[in-house]
Fold these 2 entries.
Entry 1:
Amino acid sequence: DVKVTQSSRYLVKRTGEKVFLECVQDMDHENMFWYRQDPGLGLRLIYFSYDVKMKEKGDIPEGYSVSREKKERFSLILESASTNQTSMYLCASHGAYEQYFGPGTRLTVT
Amino acid sequence: AQTVTQSQPEMSVQEAETVTLSCTYDTSESDYYLFWYKQPPSRQMILVIRQEAYKQQNATENRFSVNFQKAAKSFSLKISDSQLGDAAMYFCAYRGTTSGTYKYIFGTGTRLKVLA
C-alpha cells in the first residue's frame, strides 16, 4: 500500500514564526502536492513538485514556499506565519492513476 | 480555466437507502479524468471511484457508481445501500491531460450524513 505521512497531525504556532510541514511518500512517486483545505472552499493547490528540486506554483502560493531535496520528501514552509494561514494542510503524491493523500496537519496560528 | 462545482454542501440519507451526490464541471478539453474522493471524519482522504472521459461506460465500485454525462459535463456519484461508514466529506475532482501536469481541481465538497 502507498503510504503518505505528514510530520504532525496538529500544530500550534505563533504569528511571525517560520513553520515547516513535512511530507514523505514511500512509493517513489515523482509528483507531489500541497493543498490547503478550508470549509466551503474545498482543496486549493498551494504548490506542487514534479521532480527533485522542481516546483510550480499552484493557485494560492502567496506566503508559502516549498522544498524538495529528495524524491520522497516534500516540505511546505510558511516563512512568517499569519493567522489567516490557520487551516488544514494536506499533502498528496501521484501514482499511476490517482493521488494518495496524507492524514493532514491542522495548523493553528495564534 | 477548468472548474468543478458541487452544489450540495450537505446531504442526508437513511441507512440502507440510496443517495446521489452531484458534480458538474467546465472544461474545453476532450480527454480528462474525473474522481470522487471520500474524507471520513479525522481520517485520510481516499479514492472512491475514477472515470476516464473517453470511456462511455460508467465506472462502478461495489456500492458506488457514477453517472457520467460528458455532453452535460455532469459526474454524479450514487451510493447504494448506504452504511454508517459512508458518512464523510465527498469531493469531486478533475484532472486534464493537456497541461502535462498531474494537477487536480477539486470541488468544495458535500458532507454526507447517514442516519441510523
Entry 2:
Amino acid sequence: EPEVTQTPSHQVTQMGQEVILRCVPISNHLYFYWYRQILGQKVEFLVSFYNNEISEKSEIFDDQFSVERPDGSNFTLKIRSTKLEDSAMYFCASISGRGYNEQFFGPGTRLTVL
Amino acid sequence: AQKITQTQPGMFVQEKEAVTLDCTYDTSDPSYGLFWYKQPSSGEMIFLIYQGSYDQQNATEGRYSLNFQKARKSANLVISASQLGDSAMYFCAMREPNLSGSARQLTFGSGTQLTVLP
C-alpha cells in the first residue's frame, strides 16, 4: 500500500540554524500539507500546497517557514532560523483530492532545537 | 470558538469493556468530514474512522464506531472490547471545504489520553 514517507525521523539542531524537513507524498496525490505537534499538545495545521503554490497557511507559518516541491516528488519544509519553540513533531500529509474522507499522514519528523 | 472540542483529557477503561470518547464540533458549513486518529507513544498518526456529514449511517470499522449526532454536533468514538494496545492518545478532527469547494486541511481537537487497565 502506498504511503507518505518523511526524513529524517529525528533532527537535532542548534537554535538559529536552518533545517529542511523532507517528505515524499503518495505519487498521484495533488494536495500536500504540513502539520506541527508540540509535545503534549494538539496537531496544528501549518500550510497546504496545491498546484505548485501555497493554497492556505496558518498564522504559525510566518516568514521563517517556506515550502517547496523541488522535483515533483519531494515536498520540503524549511525553517530558516530555528527557535527553541520550533521543537515539535512535524507531520507531512497528502491527499488525491478525489475523496473527502482521505488523509494520509507520514510518520513524522521529531525536531529538537537546542 | 474552538472548532473541535474534546472535553476528556484522560480516560480509563477496564480491559474488555467499551469506552466512549467525546468530541463536539462547530461549523456552519453543511458539508464536512469528521475523523478519529489514534496516536500511540511512538508518535505516528493512525487513522481509525471517518464520518461524512451527509452519511446516513454511523460509521463503523471493526471495534470502532462513531456515534454521530448531527443536531448536537457531536461525533463520539466508541471502542468496544478494549485491549491493552488501545492505550494511546485519541484525536478528533474535522475537515471543511474551502471557498473553491475542494478539501482543505484538518482541524484537530486537543485529544484524550486513553489508558486501558488490565
